[in-house]
Amino acid sequence: MLVTREQLAAIMPRAHATGRAELWLPSLNAQMPAYRIDRERRIEMFLATIAEETGELQVQAENLSYTGERLYELFAGTFRDLAQARAVAAQGPEAIANWIYADARRSPGFRLGNNAPDDGWRYRGRGPMQLTGKANYFRFFAAVGMPLDTDPDYLLTPEGGAQSAAHFWAANGCNEIADSGDFTALTRRVNGGLINLATRQYYWDRAQAAIGETPMPEGEVPPRQAQPRLLLEGTTGDDVRALQATLNRTSGAPGLVEDGHFGPATGGAVKVFQARAGLHVDGLVGPLTRAALVAAAVPDRAPPAMPTSSATPAPRDFWAQLGELLRRVF
Prior knowledge:
CATH architecture of the largest domain: Orthogonal Bundle
Number of strands: 0
Strand content: under 5%
């Protein structure tokens, strides 16, 4: 089953307007059947995923333009402290990639095969599924019968992007999940979570309308979720006030003034919480500390394991409660 020009334009109108849809269509139609993305539901979910991951085929390479705070928030394990992260960020994207993706700075379970000084930048994220790391590039090139020293920018071409996306899709069991109709489980398999689920669902609805002839959804593309900022001493705002309220509910010694100002008392409470949770104690509230606080605020309820193609989807009440906490607290 091939996708028509009209179908792809209906799924990704912005890609059609910029000419990207027509540029990618031959490569998508060449690669999807090769990886058994050949049934309506598989094609619909595959194209919906690509639409969200690439902003309708507009973005192919990883954006490494981080502030020091955001860099430390995402990759704290590779830095001594926030000052070091700021120093690396000031050197620009290439220096950032070579720092955060170097195997020498990553724990054994998260190494990417980057052992040369410039491997981080050379093998940064590319393609719709953001293939990252020399080992993963080599694995992909070997699987498709290409020389290991192939230019990584091959993944920035329509042919390479479509091939790498389809290979990832098939290798990670996404066809089978698509057959089950569980779009939430599919999102977790691709994304590792449920980031931008509403946007993904919007594109899936469009794909079903274009290919399966269901009614086309109305309205604009839902906005992508804003990434919460790093909270540290000196920051102020409603998110700090919510943090203080959460610490008061989850700490063994509540009593923080919920004034929205991250002062020494709030920093001390964060450090106490981090120590109790077995986290790196630095007094900064980034993704790991934030996730631990959210989990602590939902007593006696642990997040379910990542579903496989045969797993039962997570109870909706848990995810609704977790989502509400994330929106309200951070």
